[in-house]
Amino acid sequence: MKNLVFFTLLLSSFWAYSQKKTLQAQQISQGISIDGKLDEPAWETATVASDFIMFEPDNGKPIPDTKKTEIKVLYNNDALYIGAIMHDDEPNKILKEISQRDDFGTADLFGVFINGFNDGQQNFEFFVSAADVQADCIMTDANGEDYSWDAIWISKAVLSDKGWVVEMKIPYAALRFSEGKKQTWGINFFREIKRERKKYTWTLINTKIGTFTQQNGNLEGIENIKPPTRLFFMPYASYYLNAAGNQQTYGTMKGGMDIKYGINDAFTLDAILVPDFGQAKYDDQILNLGPFEQQFNENRAFFTEGTDLFNKGELFYSRRIGGKPTIEPDLEDNEKIIEDPQNVNLINALKISGRTKKGLGIGILNAVTEKTFATIKDTLTGETRRVIAEPLMNYNVLVLDQRFRKNSSVTFINTNVTRNGHFRDSNVSALVWDLNTKANTYNLSGNFKYSTVHDTEDKNGIYANIGFAETSGNYRYSIGSDFVSKDYDPNDLGINFYTNYYNFFGNANYRILNPTKLFNAFKVNLNTYTEFNKDSGKIQESNIAVNTNVTTIKNNYYGFGISLYPFESYDYYEPRATNRYVALPRRFESWASVSTNYNYKFALDFNPTIAIMDEPGRINYGFDIGPRYRFSDKLLLNYTFSFLRRNNNKGYIDSFDQDNNQDTPKDIVFANRTVITYSNTLGGKYALNSTMTINLAVRQYWSFAENKEILQLESNGTLTPYPEYTKNKNSSFYSWNADLSYSWWFAPGSQLSVLYRNNASNFERVIDKDYGSNVTNLLNNEALKHIFSVSVKYFIDYNAVKNRLKNGV
């Protein structure tokens, strides 16, 4: 009988927690002061959301009474107001590191997740830390959390002797929702108690189901709202002082404006006029010995904020816009390039994005870059001429994304690049689908892409993918396949390296959904992958890998993995020639990872790797080690040293036609080489308060490839000695980057930033193995380039200006 009662109570408890909760928002007419006090009368009468449930690590466990959490929601025609009271019986233990915006640091968190369409597909997430620092992001199950998106909203966090309180004002301009007199939004609330590394949500997020956004509760009661015009101006002014050892110091002024306009409650126009990206983070350049270009992260805000629609189908690589010119000038005898532009200036850009009431997402992005020239000089006559390095260009992206059944979508994407004049143009289209069963237990995904390039020779290509997965429970699996034709080319606005192959892949994994006596989290994966060249049928890659990732009860992370490549494979890319390949030996790879609990003042990351090839002396090994120390809630320093050595590495160094006869195969020259890479990075943050930080970022990098033996690539993919080749093709690249910056968010959306940057780099064929000299050679007046810049961006709300003018203020 006792067992029956216990089972009944347990079942009732689970049933109660698993139901979709509903919260009523209360309309207000009086103003709310965002001061973290919740002392206005409206807060006293508002409906309370409570009974939080653990999300991680012990999914489904109710929050203890000592950590009771109470949430209230108010609204008017301008915004949604959130009041949150986080009780804590040990308030002196609340972690509250002050960090930069969008960086949680080591601090307790409160967050609200809002889906204005209540379609289970996308959340707008707003967080406030116990140190009063804001963070916001867009969340989708497909892409995770995108913190590059920034909205304008107001918040205040205040600590007390009973816990802490958060008050938030989220303007409707920061949200997207359909028109209607009565609104029902998806909503959830989040709390993380950092010292315990425990996360709670108001509505249960069941980790047995492979979705996050579809498990929101409902927010009701919002009726007859009349949001004001969503029109915002963000003018900026910047000053740059440039200095270098080989040039005269000079200063430049820049000014421009960003514009955001709400076409309606669901669609927004973003435009930049005369953009300035001078304070964007520097690129981490490397010694690139491979056949493909180095792919860089996007650090320009316009191309990162709210671009989830444009990233569908992976056809959009925004660094193409305003990147390095693509046209190589033809040089006559005795000519050399004396002015070689490294970037193309962006004239303007705009994007329109939003979603209709029926779930159709529409995205349009357009950008125009200016005509760019290189200067060529005749070394005999001294005459110079200008040639086009990049014509006037137009980039365009169109996305139509239809969501349905709150968990599935079908998307059409088109990208187009048009160059003015008789230059290469391209067009790529894709159909992408992501289909889930009603219970979110199985997924069918895939895409079909078609590219067209108009150049001296028109080419068409396709890329097709299909995948099936079980997405719920402790045991999960997935299988899939890709097919890519030889002429598939999306690289005018996208990025893709591998073509002319087909593959098959699979995964099986097991995870725990609740903690055990040893682990808070545990997951083990088995992966298989096999890839074939489409024309020859040869194996380009084949491996089987096992890895495991665990988080202990003390919240230390450990990972370990091994990969076995059991067959000889054939690399069709390294030779840089059509229908040529180099044979790769069988190999074994392994890695490990340790990351201690960041809650402690001192923490350490350590990641060793090793790869052993079935070839005498051919081995790769290296490691990253990164200690970090939090001196106080204001000061944090972290350092990382990286080392990688590749012994008897075989790689391409040159190719040429025999006797200048294009009808005979090229001689392709490889080298048996030693490649060694060192990297030191230092990061630091000192927070004066929650809106003001001083930041340090330093990177020193050195990598060299020393050729031991010159080899010739034979037609069967083997390598044989080639002593006749005597050119020096050793490589040594070293670089230095250092940023010291001050950032002050002096008003919502308004920022003053001051940056001092110095950087230098050098590439040589002669290798100096004195590590110290490779560093000091860059730290002198002749090598270093210096930039000092001040930039001010100010957020102007059209409605606020209109009201002030109306009131005569």
Question: What does this 3D model show about the protein?
Answer:
The longest helix is centred in the first third of the chain and has 17 residues, at 2-18. Residues 1-18 have low confidence and may be disordered. The chain starts with a helix and ends with a helix. With 809 residues, it is mainly beta. The chain is globular. It is 5% helix and 54% strand. A hairpin with a 5-residue loop joins strand 25 (425-436) and strand 26 (442-454). The protein is built from 4 helices and 45 strands.
Beta-strand segment tally: 45
**What is the 3D form?**
globular
Query: Oligomerization state of this entry?
Result: single chain
Sheet of most strands: 24 strands, antiparallel, barrel
Mean pLDDT: 91
Helical proportion, percent range: under 10%
Binned strand content: over 45%
Rg calculated over all Cα atoms: 29 Å
How far is the first residue's CA from the last residue's CA?
A: 75 Å
Query: What structural class should be given to the helix and strand makeup?
Result: mainly beta
Q: What is the tally of helical segments? A: 4
What are the low-pLDDT stretches, counting only 5+ consecutive residues below 50? 1-18
What's this entry about, in short?
This protein is mostly beta strands and 809 residues long.
Could you outline the blueprint of secondary structure elements for this entry?
Blueprint: H1 2-18, E1 22-24, E2 26-27, H2 41-45, E3 53-56, E4 69-75, E5 79-87, E6 109-115, E7 122-129, E8 134-140, E9 144-146, E10 154-160, E11 163-171, E12 182-193, E13 198-201, E14 217-223, E15 231-244, E16 247-262, E17 267-273, E18 335-339, E19 346-355, E20 360-369, E21 372-378, E22 384-390, E23 393-404, E24 408-419, E25 425-436, E26 442-454, E27 459-470, E28 475-484, E29 501-511, E30 519-533, E31 539-552, E32 557-565, E33 569-571, E34 582-584, E35 587-595, E36 602-613, E37 619-630, E38 635-657, E39 666-689, E40 692-713, E41 719-721, E42 731-747, E43 750-764, H3 771-776, E44 785-793, E45 796-797, H4 798-806
Parallel strand pairs: 1-14, 2-4
Antiparallel strand pairs: 3-13, 4-5, 5-11, 6-7, 6-12, 7-8, 8-9, 10-11, 12-13, 12-14, 15-16, 15-44, 15-45, 16-17, 17-19, 18-21, 19-20, 20-23, 21-22, 23-24, 24-25, 25-26, 26-27, 27-28, 28-29, 29-30, 30-31, 31-32, 32-35, 33-34, 35-36, 36-37, 37-38, 38-39, 39-40, 40-41, 40-42, 42-43, 43-44
